[in-house]
Amino acid sequence: MPKDLELNSLGLPKAPADTRVVVAMSGGVDSSVVAAMLKDEGYDVVGVTLQLYDHGAALAKKGACCAGQDIHDARRVAEAMGFPHYVLDYENTFREAVIEEFADAYLAGATPVPCIRCNERVKFKDLLETARDLDADCMATGHYIQRKIGANGAELHAAADAARDQSYFLFSTTQEQLDFLRFPLGHLPSKAETRKLAAKYGLVVADKPDSQDICFVPSGNYASVIEKLRPGAAEPGEIVDLEGKVLGTHRGVIHYTIGQRRGLGIGGLGDNPLYVVRLEPDTHRVIVGPKSALSTAVVPVREINWLGDAPFDSQPEWHVAVRIRSTRAPRPAIIRPISATEAEVELMEPEEGVSPGQACVFYDPDSSRIFGGGWIWKGSSEQPLR
């Protein structure tokens, strides 16, 4: 690198005007601010929005992303700031890579997190390749997460604002992707600062509400979406206790999640409320029990993406902190690798409601660094979550 050429704000040895940045624009305030900020700094900005599902059907749905109104909003921001904007039709890709698996996972009794799969299989895969095809030097997004340069290259770190941190949803970001990605909002202390920037640039989305729920699930009603995707999926069955005693009936396993207490319609055992502790799609049974039955200490994890400096399976165990729900803080744990992509995670303090299909994300207990993560699964029938 020439000595007289300093790194720009994106960490590249180029003048901003000579640096092309593709910004993934969802139409919300976060990605719009990223695009406007980089354009204001003099970068060669190209905005790209993915149409992920039928925007005609979703046009009136507020709180979604990548649908009709949001595409319109992204285009208006690009026009106002004076940079090109493209809309790519990814409906088929999104359905095959995200929606179909979402439905199948629910039918299998898991609790999937489709937003992670969307980042992994669509935004940070296909869209990232599109950015490279456009001769971009990097791709920027509005995610609240940080990319820092460490002794061995780019590292993934939690956002400065813990309340906005999206590391749980981005654990599967690979090292190669991380080298190309930029997250300009990750260092901001609060969402209020993002909205101030939106107002500063005069963006039409400055006061736009944050997206809520899963984009293709209206009003958070997962079961109705799955019934449309898989007709006949909501087969009724029995609600049984841990001893196999039939306590009642239900209207379909897809209506229940691990840890659920309300809506069972069977009351409790005296003063002890009952919770869903296991789902058995093959037998159409919902197994319930006391809260203590939800406690899990050992979690099988697979499809691991490791972002540590040494190979994942280079040592017998790793002492880390893990997050097994997006809403829970990281807790101390020991990871024992089985292979390069599979492990057993021992929680130092058992947690309740650990569900197959959720992510288990690994954190450095002494810093904000993220070491990757994997997917919680049931293990063999002889080795359930315990």
TrEMBL record:
> What catalytic reaction does the record list?
S-sulfanyl-L-cysteinyl-[protein] + uridine(34) in tRNA + AH2 + ATP = 2-thiouridine(34) in tRNA + L-cysteinyl-[protein] + A + AMP + diphosphate + H(+)
Any idea where the tRNA-specific 2-thiouridylase MnmA-like C-terminal domain is? Answer: 301-376
Where in the chain is the site Interaction with tRNA? Answer: 143, 358
Q: Where in the cell is it found?
A: Cytoplasm
Q: Where is this region: Interaction with tRNA?
A: 164-166
Report if keyword Protein transport is assigned: no
Instruction: Identify which residues the record assigns to the active site.
Output: 118 (nucleophile), 215 (cysteine persulfide intermediate)
Q: Which GO terms describe its cellular component?
A: cytoplasm
Keywords annotated in UniProt: ATP-binding, Cytoplasm, Disulfide bond, Methyltransferase, Nucleotide-binding, RNA-binding, Transferase, tRNA processing, tRNA-binding
**What GO biological process term is on the record, naming one?**
methylation
The primary site where this protein sits is cytoplasm
Question: Any idea of its EC number?
Answer: 2.8.1.13
In its UniProt record, a GO molecular function of this protein is: methyltransferase activity
- Which residues are noted in the entry as ATP-binding? 24-31, 50, 142
Query: Where does the record place the tRNA-specific 2-thiouridylase MnmA-like central domain?
Result: 234-289
Write down the top EC class of this protein.
transferase
Instruction: Give the disulfide map.
Output: 118-215
Q: Does the keyword Secreted apply?
A: no
- State the superkingdom: Bacteria
Record-linked InterPro entries: MnmA-like, MnmA-like_C, MnmA-like_central, MnmA-like_central_sf, Rossmann-like_a/b/a_fold
HAMAP family in UniProt: tRNA_thiouridyl_MnmA
Q: Which family does it belong to?
A: Belongs to the MnmA/TRMU family.
Query: What's this protein's function?
Result: Catalyzes the 2-thiolation of uridine at the wobble position (U34) of tRNA, leading to the formation of s(2)U34.
What is this protein called in UniProt? tRNA-specific 2-thiouridylase MnmA
